[in-house]
Design brief:
Structural class: alpha+beta
Mean pLDDT: 80
Largest sheet: 6 strands, antiparallel
Strand content: 15-25%
Number of helices: 21
Radius of gyration: 28 Å
Number of strands: 25
Helix content: 25-40%
Shape: globular
Low-confidence stretches: 1-83, 541-549, 646-650
Distance between the termini: 66 Å
């Protein structure tokens, strides 16, 4: 349900409130009061402005707004819930909060080390239950920070203190069970069906507890935030939830899009196609290309036994029974009323929403609270990026250990890889510790301290090599032989080909010469002059005396990087020093850019022409920000590397 509300003359923009999406709103609403007049609902609130990138501006401007919404009284709760994120209690089968109606008005800290929930911020209120029947279903693979936010329904600023990514020192149990890789694709399925919401009567202003009042009287606003947090639980949602993780594993490289369509599209709908089922059959598929399927399911708010590792069809039957049980309970509530104890006792809290404490206590420092939110969003970018790198290495470790658990291959392949992996792990652990230490600071320290940066480009290139996503430009040496006009793509250790990869000609055709296989087998099967220009170039016309050469745009990488950045400036007209602006994020597609510092111009020249753009667009831009708009700015920068230079003849 989308509700469009016309704003007052003081603000010409339309305010879009969407119950389907709790990110990317044009304004963050600061609800002040609700007045019911006949069949209309009058909302009076303040709005915080957003800049063009979708992130809250550092300079907060309050704009008074009065909006009028025509509504049906039975839909009142839906209107009030619109635009709010319902934060889940269970993610991936793990329950992260034990919440009951007694937790209403508890505080919530964005910069908590372990437990974000605090004591009550406000005194008791006139709380009531309201019908709120809704369904939220997700079926998605996880391979990026943005996928994590969409799947867990936990926004970036919350993810560093609440949910599946705050386990121990960031061991990433959730990611290692759900993250998709070359040989493994996981689809995270979740359906949350709600029955009612428990909240305070919004027409009655909330009153701070005695300690909060005392701190405000003493102008100790930081003390309020450090003790109670900047947010509080303003609604608790009750209902049922069913979650399942479908994981397909194969020795062959998997096609994620194909699996999403063939398996994800059939979850809760119907049987798999005959062609796709054949991929799991030993008699119809060879060993290397065979698929195995594992399913792990969990439920909340429903008395339903789920057998370990059910089949796909069995899981579909579980989903069917879950939905039938929900429909039965909702029908009972409609017939007997919201306070039907026989049904209420069977439901449980499945989510909650957070309100801004500053909305209810206007004397608090709103700028400080908003800055904290911005800092936590920035921290989450570093946090999620680092955890994904960690989980990728853990999954690859497990795969290689299972493949080469004994014999000479364990020593030559696994142990050599493991030693280098531990060096990378130490860098990752240091970054996780740095993030953990930062979020434990008090609000005043956080506001005045720079957010930890992501792993630098050099470290990430090393990790890409350990994950089989590296590249070595020509001349490349393979098993002691030098190949001048070829390059390597695959596993790399100490800037040398390792374990498995492919060799391609370093020209605009990028022909694959050999692989994927081991460096030893490649060096034994290809000739060193296989890609020499004399062997691959077409025969010149008999009368021609010209020699032609097609130069690479990266022959002068610094000049190329500078030209790429200038292209961003010409496009977006923003100063490069505006670290929240589109020009700065576009420059991330041209060079290394961290905390406003541009370095290593032309860094993507370290990749072959064929993979230069894809590496920049997919790998680097996905890490540049969790916001899609900023990733798109970055990808515009990456498009520079698609440019081909004309041939020169002399």
């Amino acid at each position: 349900m989308d509700i469009m509300t016309n704003s007052s003359a003081e603000e010409s923009a339309l305010l879009s409130i969407s119950s389907r999406n709790c990110k990317g709103l044009e304004y963050q609403k600061m609800l002040k009061s609700i007045i019911v007049v006949g069949s209309s609902l009058i909302l009076m609130y303040m709005a915080l402005s957003f800049n063009e990138t979708g992130r809250k501006s550092d300079l907060i401007v309050e704009v008074p707004l009065i909006a009028k919404i025509t509504y049906n009284p039975e839909e009142e709760t839906r209107v009030l819930m619109s635009g709010k994120c319902v934060i889940p209690i269970m993610v991936g089968g793990t329950i992260y909060a034990q919440i009951t109606e007694n937790n209403l008005l508890d505080g919530f800290k964005l910069n908590a080390h372990q437990h974000p929930f605090t004591a009550k911020v406000f005194t008791a209120c006139d709380a009531e239950r309201k019908n709120f029947a809704s369904t939220k279903s997700i079926s998605k693979t996880i391979s990026s920070a943005e996928d994590i936010e969409e799947t867990t329904l936990i926004a970036g600023e919350l993810s560093v203190s609440y949910g599946p990514l705050v386990e121990g020192s960031g061991s990433g149990k959730f990611l290692t069970s759900t993250l998709s890789t070359k040989h493994r694709v996981s689809i995270e399925y979740s359906t949350r069906r709600t029955a009612y919401v428990y909240e305070c009567d919004s027409r009655v202003p909330l009153e701070g507890v005695a300690d909060v009042k005392n701190k405000i009287r003493d102008q100790d606003y930081g003390g309020v935030y450090d003790r109670y947090g900047t947010k509080f639980i303003d609604q608790i949602v009750f209902g049922m939830q069913l979650s399942a993780t479908y994981t397909i594993i194969s020795n062959s490289v998997l096609n994620k899009q194909e699996i999403e369509a063939a398996l994800g599209g059939k979850i809760g709908v119907g049987p798999l196609t005959v062609e796709f089922e054949a991929k799991f059959d030993h008699s119809k598929t060879n060993k290397d290309e065979l698929y195995t399927l594992e399913v792990e399911a969990h439920s909340l708010g429903v008395d339903m036994a789920v057998a370990p590792n059910p089949s796909f069809d069995e899981m579909n039957e579980i989903i069917k029974n879950f939905n039938a049980d929900y429909d039965k309970k909702i029908e009972s509530l409609r017939k007997n009323g919201i306070d039907d104890n026989s049904v209420l006792n069977q439901l449980t809290a499945v989510g909650f929403t957070l309100g801004d404490t500053t909305n209810q206590l206007p004397t608090l420092d709103k700028l400080e609270a908003a800055t904290l939110s911005n800092k936590m969003i920035n921290l989450s970018n570093t946090w999620l990026d680092t955890l994904i790198e960690s989980a990728d290495l853990q999954l690859e470790d497990k795969r290689l250990d299972e493949l080469y658990g004994s014999g000479i291959e364990k020593k030559e392949i696994y142990m050599k890889w493991y030693d280098e992996k531990m060096k990378a792990k130490n860098l990752i652990d240091q970054k996780i510790t740095e993030c953990n230490n930062y979020k434990q600071l008090g609000i005043e320290e956080i506001v005045n301290t720079v957010v930890p940066e992501k792993l630098n480009m050099i470290d990430r290139i090393v990790i890409d090599g350990l994950l089989g996503k590296g590249a070595i430009l020509p001349p490349v040496t393979i098993n002691g032989k030098e190949y001048e006009n070829m390059y390597w793509e695959g596993y790399i250790i100490d800037n040398e080909p390792f374990y498995e990869g492919v060799v391609k000609c370093y020209d605009h055709n990028r022909e694959t010469v050999a692989g994927p296989t081991s460096p030893y087998k490649i060096s034994a099967t290809i000739k060193q002059n296989r890609c020499d220009p004399a062997r691959t170039a077409p025969s010149p016309a008999p009368t021609s005396t010209c020699i032609c050469k097609t130069p690479d745009i990266c022959d002068d990488r610094v000049t190329a990087g500078s030209a790429c950045i200038q292209r961003c400036i010409d496009k977006y007209k923003y100063a490069l020093t505006n670290t929240g602006g589109p020009t700065y994020y576009c420059a991330k597609g041209c060079a290394s850019a961290n905390s406003g510092v541009i370095s290593n111009k032309g860094v993507f020249c370290g990749y072959p022409f064929e993979t230069r753009y894809s590496t920049c667009s997919n790998s680097s831009c996905n890490r540049a920000s969790s916001h899609k708009s900023r990733q798109n700015y970055c990808r515009y920068g990456c498009q520079y590397w698609l440019k081909e230079t004309p041939s020169l003849c002399y």
